[in-house]
Write a structure and sequence with these properties.
about 100 residues, mainly alpha
Length: about 100
């Protein structure tokens, strides 16, 4: 995976991104999540809730990109956390703490 391409849209201060850059960042993160989902060997990657979430984000890119800076930051950080978690799962680096 090309990490420079993956992180380029969010390299600047997250709240400093303009409307178009926010849309690009969201679309890139959704694409990354889809790629990770498709690469997961077990059924976790085929979770219907994840599919619905990604479709909902796709349908809401404009609304999300228009969010105020504080809300944008929260949404972006949650999506980046999800991407990091899915990356760990895809590489076998996730541990359960039960």
């Amino acid at each position: 995976m090309d990490r420079t391409r993956q992180s380029a849209p969010v390299a600047a201060g997250h709240s400093e991104l303009g409307f178009v850059d926010r849309q690009i960042a969201l679309r890139q993160i959704v694409a990354d999540l889809r790629n990770l989902r498709d690469g997961v060997p077990d059924n976790f990657g085929r979770a219907p809730a994840l599919d619905r979430l990604l479709r909902m984000i796709d349908a809401s890119v404009i609304s999300i990109a228009k969010a105020d800076d504080e809300e944008w930051e929260i949404i972006l950080m949650e999506l980046l956390d999800l991407r990091a978690t899915m990356t760990r799962l895809a590489t076998g680096g996730a541990e359960t703490s039960h």
